[in-house]
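REQUEST FORM: STRUCTURE PREDICTION
Request ID: SP-0412
Submitted by: Lab K.M.
Chain count: 1
Length (residues): 703
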Amino acid sequence: MQTDILRTRLAAVAIAAGFAGWALYRNDGAPVFPLDDAYIHLQYARGWAQGHPLVYQPGESPGTGATSMLWPLLLAPVAALGPEPLWPAWLWGVALGIFGFVLTADGTYRFLRAEDPADGRRARAGAVFVLGFGPLVWTAVSGMEGSLAAGSLAQTLASLRAGPWAPVGVGSQGGVTPSARRIPAWAWAVVLAMLRPEGAFLVGLIAVSEAVRVHRASGFGSLRALWVWVVPLTFGALQPVVNLVLTGRLMGTSGLSKISRATGGQDTFPIWVLWHDLILGGWGEVLAQGFGRVLPLVLALGLARAMRRDRGMVLVTCLMLPMLLLAVSMPVMWHYFRYLHPLTPVAALLAADVVGWLLGRCGELARPVGVVLGVAWGLGGASWADLLARNVSDIRVQHVEMGRWIARHLPVDARIAAGDVGALAWFGGRRLIDLEGIVTPGMQRHASAGEGSLYARLRELRPTHAVYYADTWYPGIALSGVFQEERRAVLNVRSIAGGQAMVLGATNHAVFDSAASPPHMGSGERWCAVVDVAALDSEAAAGWKEVPGTRPRAAPARFVPSRVVSMMATHGDARIVDDARHVFGTEVFRLPCVDVRGGRLVGRVFHQDAPATLSVSIGGERVGSIALATNAGRWTEVSLQLPDAYDGDEVTVVPEDSTPGDQGGRLVARWWRVVVDGTATSSVAQPPGAPIRVTKTIPRRGR
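STATUS: Completed
RESULT:
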């Protein structure tokens, strides 16, 4: 047994080191991690090293973008050395990952050997499964915490199996084992709980399983022996508590950025989203893939194993269930299901059961059959070494080199908007605005509400530059002309990067400001109130909403993302780039101004269906209508006289006779309230697309 353990550990080191060496060889010796998220961890690690916990960039407030409490702390000693050269950070990150890989193989073997001390075939099968599992080896050299989390889970289970869960006659006295024998399990459970957010949840399931075991062995009176589980559970709650104390937020922004994709821009987590979008919708996506078709089999094997082995293992052998439910959401599938890699030990237990059953029926051929299966599994896993090398190449050519270019060429006060912010921040050393909202709190809801809402938020934050993927991420922003290209990094073949071409552009503030005002106003006119539709903060300030239940049947029933629209204005050759929202039903908003009454309502609308009429009411009383014609490729800016006594009351805009087509509804960009200094104004509605003319002025009445 000791010989097998030593061989397993040495094999794990050799395999993972071979993967890392192959990636170096294929990338001219460049020590680069294959995932941008690894550099996010290094950024947080540098904050810890400088005495600023949870601070991503110097001078910022603490945030909740770190998904792990322990991993940045482990990286802090090398992160303090800075980004160049990268060798210290790379070597230390890879060493920690390989250590986790060794722990996973070792713990899996010891767990299975403790179950069947007289027969090592299942234990060896489980170890071979781990050693040949390419995704876990990839994770081990990725600079991420996945393999160490898997190793902590494996060691927790192995320590429990060798002690309280051991079969009678193998390290167990048939009752409650003294606490001293379970100390290693608690220690590894603490590491697991602090490495990953779901680690605390897994520790909770293990604690419940242990409670069931103790109760069945000795009754409720012995549950006091479970007090030691308070330690890992307390450490599991440490990160949310630290988040709450330092930032005022309990939930991390990394998970929130994924969840908010399904909530249409809300930064909450309604239960219907978990049920409908992540579970029901996600299962449909996964089951359509080859990987997804094995999930029911995996769950059935887990239940069968639990019932056959011992009931105390029911919850532990089914630890994969909650993670599978989460993993079926599309965001979690990114990067080779890496969020499932920490559960490799559980998958190995199930695989060992299947292989052990098969070998038991092979008789004298069991050994050669086992060798063939092991070699085939290992060859399949070896293919991940080439994938790792290609991933490293993607990150090196785009993220790392772009970050280094930023450090050399951009001013120190540059503010860069980007979707991938790990390597750009680590190497570039400039202030980053995270378009995904992981390290820039509050951005999630804007990004999730659509590209138009994100564009509106960028106008408020005023970045000097942006890094984006011209062919995939934010195509409306990329094509709007708001960022003028200065550098481009193009991949021949993309393997893990967000797009084929990563572009850095300088901000054209004239384009940013092109939509701020109606392009044609009369002499002395000014706007005193506006609702920028799709700009979430402006919508909230004006009380803008699309009234529920007013969408036609042909319109989408749920959330429709906002858009960035770049169109020729209605007054000549000027180009206006504005954010807009698809609106299908009734709009409601307020436009209050200080010490002003009356005025006129000016709207910027893009209509692409059959001609339609918008009825406008104030306080329930109809005040006029606006005609919309199909206006291909151009904004329609319309105007309607408001009552002289209007003082900012609720405005209701109702589509009267529109029939949504495939796109449906209308794109609404803004509603302004326009007044003349010293007077209230009066005008007549203009034909769609025509210049807006002031036809009459009336002295403003007193309040």
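NOTES: The first helix runs from residue 2 to 26.
Reviewed by: T.R.
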